[in-house]
């Protein structure tokens, strides 16, 4: 692929405290051909006013009720026109203004269907790092143990989502995991890892809210693996948590 247009999808609901940081993060990217789509779930806290304030930098936005985060992501996918699609939620920001230029360079230079990098979890100030997730632990054969690339750093060729389908909306937390299992394992797509931090995520997201969420997540990971012919069980998935604990003490170089 000699040239790419990148679409970034942001889904949100009542995110007035954080959505501006996300929008500005995309608007400040140095890469020239970006299409930013915002899918709001009919917020009532002032989120719509913030989005409207930046309508000049947003290609399209909608605000209407949805059936959850994955339904909203599918709506965004249906709206985009770019060659490459990424997802940046309303709690997240790109680590600097050069991230999408690096993504474009990968797709322009390499015959890949996807690329991804690392993420840091931060406090509300976007400066205090509390966890470092390094995506180099991921490989398709490690899906059975619950490993996946950091979702907000994952960029996919849009054609893949048309060919193999989008997010399954009957998952509560792990539809992104199921999509990765379907694309990387079942369909064997080509990919590249970028060994850099690409995104800052505020702590408190839907998949990082404590023991109950982790249990639901683990059960859905097992389901996702089985639906895509990956042999696993809850014990295998639980084995990753001691390793995840070490991420609390790791910092980007």
- Let me know the number of strands: 9
Proportion of residues in β-strands: 15-25%
Shape: globular
Q: Given the helix and strand composition, which structural class is it?
A: alpha/beta
Oligomer: single chain
Percent helix, as a range, is 25-40%
Gap between N and C termini = 31 Å
Report on this model:
With 253 residues, this protein is of the alpha/beta class. The chain has one domain (6-248): Spore Coat Polysaccharide Biosynthesis Protein SpsA, Chain A (Alpha-Beta Complex), CATH 3.90.550. Strands 1, 2, 3, 4, 5, 6, 7, 8 and 9 form a nine-stranded mixed sheet that branches. It contains nine helices and nine strands. The mean pLDDT is 91. It has helices spanning 19-27, 47-53, 69-79, 99-109, 158-164, 175-186, 211-227, 234-238, 240-245; strands spanning 6-12, 34-40, 60-63, 84-87, 92-94, 114-122, 129-133, 155-157, 191-202. Helix 6 runs parallel beside helix 7 (211-227).
Describe the structure in brief:
The chain is α/β, with parallel strands linked by helices and about 250 residues long. It has one domain: Spore Coat Polysaccharide Biosynthesis Protein SpsA, Chain A. Helices cover about 35% and strands about 20% of the residues.
């Amino acid at each position: 692929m000699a040239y790419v247009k990148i679409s970034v999808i942001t889904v949100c609901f009542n995110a007035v405290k954080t959505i501006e940081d996300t929008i500005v993060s995309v608007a400040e990217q140095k890469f020239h051909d970006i299409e930013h789509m915002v899918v709001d779930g009919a917020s009532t806290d002032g989120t719509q006013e913030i989005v409207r304030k930046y309508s000049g930098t947003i290609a399209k936005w909608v605000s209407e009720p949805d059936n959850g985060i994955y339904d909203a992501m599918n709506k965004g996918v249906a709206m985009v026109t770019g060659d490459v699609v990424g997802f940046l939620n309303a709690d997240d920001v790109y680590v600097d203004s050069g991230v999408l230029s690096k993504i474009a360079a990968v797709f322009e230079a390499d015959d890949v269907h996807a690329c991804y990098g690392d993420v840091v979890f931060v406090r509300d100030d976007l400066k205090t790092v509390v966890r470092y997730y390094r995506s180099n632990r991921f490989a398709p054969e490690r899906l059975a143990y619950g490993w996946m690339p950091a979702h907000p750093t994952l960029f996919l060729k849009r054609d893949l989502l048309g060919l193999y389908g989008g997010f399954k909306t009957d998952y509560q937390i792990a539809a992104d995991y199921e999509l990765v299992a379907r694309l990387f394992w079942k369909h064997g797509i080509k990919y590249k890892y970028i060994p850099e931090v690409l995104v800052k995520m505020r702590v408190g997201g839907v998949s990082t809210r404590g023991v109950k969420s982790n249990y639901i997540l683990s059960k859905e990971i097992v389901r996702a693996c089985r639906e895509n012919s990956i042999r696993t069980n809850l014990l295998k998935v639980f084995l990753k948590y001691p390793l995840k604990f070490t991420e609390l003490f790791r910092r980007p170089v």
